[in-house]
Amino acid sequence: MSESGTGKKARVPGIVVAGKTGTSQVVKMGEDRARANRGAQVMRDHAWFIAFAPFDAPEIAIACIVEHAGGGGGAIAAPVVQQVLAHYFGATRGRRAGPGSQCASTAD
User: Fold this and answer.
1) DSSP result, 45-81
2) Are 54 and 44 in contact (CB under 8 A)?
3) Which of 19, 81, 75 is nearest to 47 (CA)?
4) 52, 74, 78, 84: which is deepest, by most CB within 10 A?
5) What is the pTM of this model?
6) How far apart are CA 79 and CA 99, in angstroms?
7) What is residue 26's predicted lDDT score, i.e. its pLDDT?
8) Can you say how many angstroms the Cα of residue 87 is from the centroid of all Cα atoms in its chain?
9) How far is it, in rounded angstroms, from Cα 26 to Cα 36?
């Protein structure tokens, strides 16, 4: 488990979440790429995060892709997954939503 991984924003209290963050480039590397995430929205990178939980006995798997987000999956897509997981575990286990538990994740 990682306390400082790129997927830390997907944490759900009392649930160990396993996940992987990523970024999908929209334009090819080069001069245009350097300006891509500051320019027109259609040129910005996509952000993604995939996860399952709980780590030791999975009940739910989820994938989130935020098109033209202009940033990485840990910063943009992981919080979306956290909201879905918090809602799921709140509904199935009577837990409150919110950040703060363990998260297993790997670097981009």
Assistant:
1) PEEEEEEEESTTS--EEEEEEETT-SS-HHHHTHHHH
2) no
3) 75
4) 78
5) 0.76
6) 9
7) 81
8) 15
9) 8
Q: What are 103's two structure tokens?
A: 């998260």
pLDDT at residue 102 in the model: 47
* Nearest alpha carbon to residue 49 among 96, 91, 92, 5: 5
Whole-angstrom Cα distance, residue 26 to residue 67? Answer: 9
Among residues 55, 71, 67, 72, which one has the least CA distance to residue 17?
55
Tokens matching residue 64: 């989130």
Length of the chain, please?
108
Q: Which of 77, 96, 73 is nearest to 14 (CA)?
A: 96
Predicted local distance difference test score (pLDDT) of residue 98: 46
- How far is 9 from 4, CA to CA, in rounded Å? 10
pLDDT for the residue numbered 84: 96
Average pLDDT per block of 10 residues along the chain, 108 residues long: 82 94 81 63 88 96 94 94 94 59 45
Q: Which amino acid is it at 80?
A: V
